[in-house]
Fold each of these.
Amino acid sequence: MQAVKAMQTTFPEAMVEDFKLTGGAQFGLPDPGDEHVIAAALKTQAQALVTENLKDSAAICGHLNIEARSPDGFIADTIALEEGGVIAAIRKMRERLKRP
């Protein structure tokens, strides 16, 4: 829960709270508890959804013009786009470690 709090503090604009779900299986995901993720992506007009649940999300996202991406794929593409910036950020994180 501490990680969630840190993300909310750091990226308050990333919180999507005013989306609407109509019933338990609006998008047909096997786990109704995941429906809010697709609803929030639609609400924010997301171009991509980063998820470990590609199996259940990819087809639905495809129909909604949202690219479903794995975290590893997303990170790899981010590194490829801005390698110098990523290396600098990792170096800075490493310097903050108390006991590496």
Note: Residues 54 and 68 are 6 Å apart (CA to CA).
Amino acid sequence: MKPPDSEALDRLLLERSVRRGHFVLASGRTSTFYIDCRLTTMSAAGLVLIGRLGLDALREAGWAPRGVGGLTMGADPVAYAIAAASASRPPVLDAFSVRKEAKAHGTGRRVEGNFTAGDAVVVVEDVITTGGSALKAIEAIREEGGTVLGVLAVVDREEGGRAVLEAAGHQVVALTTSTRLGLK
């Protein structure tokens, strides 16, 4: 039996984020369903659920990161939700964002926010399909001197991304899957 928060997250994703039809995904693949996770991750109810579930999941995985973050913009609300949830359940985690490319002005960094070289972090994602976004975030974090403990996703579409990330040596935890959502 799924915990009540997990069931609530699945319901919220199905109500707000899942669309059926013909879609081209960021990976270039086509699909008969699309998960616009931002409609859940940026909602008040979604932020609360993802914060609690995400914090529980990373602690159950045995990860003790300094921070959480990933490729902007899909990862941003996930990271913020987990960081906020940790405020009342220490140890406190901070959030950061990984830019798709460094800006030509300011610090010129790709990793922005609460991140410094030497930090051990967890990369977060809204949806894992091919694992490409997580791999880009991991590369940027490593280039700036960080260590990645693992990858935490809200939804695993179960289309090979987890296997790609695990083959690259990264443990992956997902709060739900397309199968659990009844999409496969």
Note: The mean pLDDT is 94.
